[in-house]
Amino acid sequence: MSEFNEFDQQGSVPSKDTGSIISHAFEMYKGVFLYAIVAMIVYLVGGFVIQSLSGFNSAEMAEEMRGGNYDYNIWGAPGFTAYMSLSWLFGLLLAPLYVGLIYIVNKYNTKNTVEFSDLFIGYRQNFVNILIYSILSGIISTVAAALCFFPFFFVYPLLMLGYPILLFENASATEALGKSFNVAKENYGTFLGVTLLGFIISVAGVILCGIGIILTAPFIMIVMYSLYCAFLGKPRQILLNK
Length: 242
Prior knowledge:
The protein is 66% helix and 3% strand. It is mainly α.
């Protein structure tokens, strides 16, 4: 169980424009990037474990593609189906970890002491709804991506507030989805610009230096927090009962 109490006036809130929100996210990220790296390391290690368990060889697939074998049937590759199933399940179970990163950003913004255990608050706070929301948003994103991929970038801005709403407002999955959609719809231009810039920065690690993705990928989660602050105000502090 948890309580929601109003906290003091410490903490910054960006203006409702793309530049201000991205700048705010940068400032927040500089203070929490070590925790973001931990989250990414967990993700990468889990990916390697899943690949080992499934028997799928991604290096072999990449070699086939580089060799010009465009007839390569990835769905027929040994272990690929198991790999995809386990990856989906693992990604679902990691959603609360990303919510924990948002929680840490808020504590940093409001000058509260951050503890390593804060990264796992999503497994204690509103856990079921976080999982349900992850499934729903995943389905929406997958359908959008399947439509020539580009629609994904126009749909995802509507989902950007979901995780912060689940955490700070203790909402249900459907409430978070509906509220995120309504707020983003009314301010779609800003949400689209912020989301696109957030994704570009998040994948910049691959372009600059492959391993750099560990540093940049979590940035999109920080953008979600900054968007929440800009359009819904500074969140209320979450006080967990011990």
